[in-house]
Amino acid sequence: MKSNLIVLLICAFTGLSFTSERVLYLLYPSHFPAPTYNLTDNPLLQESIDLGQMLFYDPILSKDYSISCASCHSPYNAFAHTDHDLSHGINDSIGTRNAPALFNLAWQTSFMWDGAVNHLDMQSLAPLSHPSEMGENIKDVVEKLSNTMRYRTAFYNAWADSLPTGERFLKSITQFQLTLISATAKYDRVMAGNDVLSPQEAMGYALFKDHCGSCHTEPLFSSYGFSKNGLPVDTTLDDYGRYRVTKNDEDSLLFKIPSLRNLSYTFPYMHDGRYLKLNEVLNHYNILEAGMIDDSALSRPMNLSSKDKVDLISFLMTLNDTAFVLNPQNKFPQSLQMRSKN
Ligand code: HEC
Ligand code: HEC
Fold first, then answer.
1. Could you tell me which of 302, 110, 104 has the C-alpha nearest to residue 225?
2. What residue ranges in the chain does DSSP mark as E strands?
3. What is the β-pairing status of strands 255-256 and 16-18?
4. Residues with CB under 6 A from ligand 1
């Protein structure tokens, strides 16, 4: 009885729960919709999640052993990269976009700012082979892993076979990323009836629903669709977003709508990291002229006063999920701490 309870408590903390056998399933609050990732194609096991976590933190994935996924997606920043507006990869090369935060990926069906990738299992191939990110290829990574005792053991534990393959590699990284669930912010406690918004936060919430909620939809704070939000194009980067993928004129300047959870940890903001502060973001939305964007929320001037901006930001702060950001289970794993050649 007691040990069951402990298991349940641990699960509630990690966002995982057990079914009858070894297979785990994702735990999320009742105000969340069902995840879209199809777990029957990639059943969660603790051993493959652990393997995925090792891979995520291991620079063995890059050509010169210098860059891991976590170099650009830091757990202390809700898995975004706050030092840089544009991402930095091997040989100090600079990318063209800001590294997005990683959480609630189980609810998303398009990845990258332009939706260039449409399945989470395929996503890792992009940074792995990108010349200014990890500069590697999957064949060589699998080879490096096969030559490492620690990984042969980990693949055996996860996949009942010590042979690393591309598919097992990709599915294991996915499994770790699926467990990154941000659902324990003040907002979530309020939704569960365990907390209340302060009067200022409640005023901010009303403004949010009026001006922001059509794109940054509750409870994930993004519809995870694509939209314009009126940013002028940076002429150096020349990034037209979704248009790059579809080549349809109507997709010009559409970007994937980011979640507004954990904003205190994920600056700088926007696809190119052009804004450092939320006040700058609100000033941008506030100057948009009527009719500029074809969305009910952005097709009329917002006329936010200084007080409105402060109220709105105080509501946005209720979306910070400190328990998620501090969760030691998501950080650099013990299994990588003992560095050995093999
Ligand atoms: C050099 C920095 C860098 C490295 C290393 C890196 N990423 Fe990224 N990541 C980015 C950037 C930048 C983007 C956005 C790219 C774009 O929109 O074109 C991104 C996007 C993503 C996304 C899509 C998120 C979303 O909301 O659409 C996921 C998932 C992701 N990375 C996971 C990983 C994994 C797993 C690894 C390791 C295999 C990794 N990244 C390595 C910089 C990096
Ligand atoms: C019409 C849809 C739409 C509406 C309405 C909207 N946004 Fe956005 N928002 C976006 C898109 C699209 C992006 C990404 C744009 C980019 O990077 O080029 C974005 C980006 C952001 C970001 C940056 C997040 C990050 O991680 O980089 C913040 C913060 C933000 N919006 C806050 C708000 C607030 C606050 C409101 C209401 C005042 C609002 N948005 C209204 C579509 C919208």
1. 110
2. 16-18, 24-26, 226-227, 255-256
3. unpaired
4. 56, 61, 67, 69, 71-73, 87-89, 95, 97, 99-100, 102, 105, 111-114, 123-124, 127-128, 133-134, 173, 256
Topology match between the domains 2-182 and 186-320: yes
- Which ligand 2 atom is at minimum distance from the Cα of 113? 17
For the record, the structure tokens of 10 come out as: 């641990």
Q: Are 264 and 101 in contact (CB under 8 A)?
A: no
The distance between the two most distant Cα atoms of the chain, rounded to a whole number of Å, is 63
Q: Kindly report, residue by residue over 143-156, the tens digit of the pLDDT.
A: 999 999 999 999 99
Residue 163 CB partners (closer than 8 Å, separation 6+): 146, 152, 155
CB burial of residue 38 (10 Å; 0-12, 13-18, 19+): exposed
Q: Three-class SS of residue 24?
A: strand
For 2-182, CATH gives: 1.10.760.10
Domain covering 186-320 in this structure, CATH number? 1.10.760.10
Alpha carbon distance 122, 68 (integer Å) = 17
Q: Which of 264, 260, 262 is nearest to 285 (CA)?
A: 260
Mean pLDDT for 281-291 is 84
Distances from the Cα of 299 to the Cα of 180, 205, 280, angstroms: 35, 20, 20
Ligand 2 contact via 317 beta carbon (within 6 Å): no
**120 pLDDT more than 80:** yes
Q: Where are the domains of the chain?
A: 2-182, 186-320
Q: 88 - beta bridge partners?
A: 94
280 ligand 2 Cβ < 6 A:
no
What is the pTM for the complete model shown?
Answer: 0.93
Question: Stretch 212-231: mean pLDDT, rounded?
Answer: 95
The predicted pLDDT at position 1 comes to 33
Pairing of strands 24-26, 226-227: unpaired
Comparing 43-52, 183-192, 253-262, 283-292, the range with the smallest average pLDDT is: 283-292
The pair phi, psi for residue 209, each rounded to 5°, is: -65, -35
